[in-house]
Known about the structure:
It is a single chain. By secondary structure, this protein is of the alpha/beta class. The chain has two domains: 1-28 and 285-299, no CATH class; 29-269, TIM Barrel. It is built from twelve helices and eight strands. Strands 1-2-3-4-5-6-7-8 form an eight-stranded parallel barrel, surrounded by seven helices. The protein binds dihydroflavine-adenine dinucleotide.
Amino acid sequence: MDFVNQTIVSFVKLLPKTIVHIFAKKYIAGETLQDAINVVKQLNSKGIFATLDVLGEAIKTKDEAIHEKEECLRVLNAISENNLKANLSIKPTSLGLSIDEEFFYQQLKEVLTKAKEFKNFVRVDMEDSPYTSATIKIFKRLQSEFDNVGIVVQAYLKRTMDDVKDLNMTKTNYRLCKGIYIEPEEIAYKNKQSIRDNFLKLLETMLQNKSYVGIATHDDYLVNGAYRIIEEMKLQKDKYEFQMLYGVTERLRDKINSDGHKIRIYVPYGKKWYAYSIRRMQENPEVAGHIAKSIFKFN
Ligand code: FDA
């Protein structure tokens, strides 16, 4: 991120929440579960799948983590009751990973048990690098007990190819993404093309292993690269899906859908929308710039 963009993001962080909310609305379904259900129904009506995310990272107590888990159980109930084509994504720290690993394991196990009852699936999101090893460790433990759990790996981390080789030993269900957190140079590729190259190398490695992959990107270059790999490997359509974030590059989303590939949209909702929105801005500071301009009309 260049200096100007960095400055804009820092500046936006100083804005009142009500103003950031103007921007956030595009990327979150709303504050309530019903808001999220309404968005998923609209997506499903276009043949698009969803994964729901309760916005609740950075919790500090076990009580908060239990509350988050209960919301996850409500989501699974709602998906079933409303016959939604949707599953659930969970941020490990929202269920307590940063407080106590064993506690997190038990919490996630409860969610997976409920999901299994509903024949549904849970994806464990990947957060910043202090949590990578613990997330993989607990995922592997749960993967030996459940067949309805998947994990996310990040192409910007230098360790990821080794992680994938390890996870490929058991048939892992992956979401592959670039990675959204700001990581040190020693452990993460910083160059855009190096991240893309690693993404496509990882994708091939996963697919050659016959693993199911959620190809999570809005980058045309990667979508085209994935199309090429799918074509070369003559992959059946039930072996992979594309994934995108709610509110981002809807034209590309619709193109992938009309090309006949399965596509799933990550739909976040909840009262804790602020941190998620700031991350979206760090990701695409032009958006922060647009907000700043629309408020202060400077050009
Ligand atoms: P890139 O950032 O190059 O974006 C390509 C184009 O998409 C941009 O040029 C722009 O037009 C558009 N775009 C991208 N982001 C935008 C935005 N915020 N607003 C407007 N336009 C935007 N990361 C992680 O670390 N852990 C995780 O668990 C997940 N989970 C996850 C799930 C799903 C379904 C997706 C799609 C992504 C994630 N990510 C994630 C985020 C991911 O790591 C990555 O940061 C973003 O997808 C952005 O990278 P792209 O590959 O889309 O390319």
